[in-house]
């Protein structure tokens, strides 16, 4: 029942999922997380769930990274340094 | 040291139980590629005949499971309200917005080209949501992505200027209200809450679906406005960390 494309996609999802956790630098982690999201988009498309694929594409590559980046800059970026200096 | 041992003593049995329960659940799952569940098989067979909508997930989300979607919409509505309440409270009103601008010409031009394209893609995804893959949630978020591009390609002032908060606030509220109003209209028509009381129309046309189309558009409006409002709050937090934000620093 399972074909080659499905195996390839599942492997990519597994590898990128581990890569997100293994990444220590938060900024890079956001990028890797976006790639992980894209691999899930391909997974949902391959498994014939295009509605979920579109949701995943927008959430994981537009909305979520945006919120993460703003939070990272606010808590670890210049804002945090300035507050420490004060 | 003893504390560490205590933690380990607690962790190991709990993790073992969790792993056991997960494995138990996994073993009971239907095997890969097995024929659809009775409910799914029923919908695949009868949905188009009953609701005249070609995208079956949309018919499930906005009709058969319309009540669940109302809950999801209200979750989004409440979380946006919570974000706004928490973040707006701790922020002193600086009045002036920073004059940041996209530095790279490539980003400016590509972004300016992408804003209308992304907005159109979003509106298209909403309007064809019950015919082809897509729908109010996906399309709404794509539309809010277009608002984000205004900031990436233009400036924060442009982003806030073209998405005025009173308008977006009102849009979010009306989206959620329109969903409930459609449900109540079904009650007024003598049917159950959120039941499809409008004519279903011709299969495969934009006028098909009846209440599914209405609820789809209500959700699209609500999600688009909710996305923009969340971006507003988070960007407002971020923008305070921008190196050269205030006009006072520019004068120096």
TrEMBL record, chain A:
The chain crosses the membrane at residues 6-23, 30-47, 53-73. It is found in: Cell membrane. It is a multi-pass membrane protein. One of its GO terms (cellular component) is plasma membrane. It comes from the Bacteria. The keyword Transmembrane applies. Coiled coil: none annotated. Residues 12-76 form the MrpA C-terminal/MbhD domain. This is DUF4040 domain-containing protein. It comes from Streptomyces montanisoli. The lineage of its organism: Bacteria, Bacillati, Actinomycetota, Actinomycetes, Kitasatosporales.
UniProtKB/TrEMBL annotation, chain B:
It is a multi-pass membrane protein. Residues 108-226 form the Na+/H+ antiporter MnhB subunit-related protein domain. Its main location: membrane. InterPro entries: CPA3_antiporter_subunitB, MnhB. It holds the Pfam family MnhB. GO terms for cellular component: plasma membrane. The chain crosses the membrane at residues 74-90, 111-131, 137-156, 176-198, 210-231. It is found in: Cell membrane. Keywords: Cell membrane, Membrane, Transmembrane, Transmembrane helix. PANTHER family: NA(+)/H(+) ANTIPORTER SUBUNIT B, NA(+)_H(+) ANTIPORTER SUBUNIT B. Belongs to the CPA3 antiporters (TC 2.A.63) subunit B family. This is Sodium:proton antiporter. The lineage of its organism: Bacteria, Bacillati, Actinomycetota, Actinomycetes, Kitasatosporales.
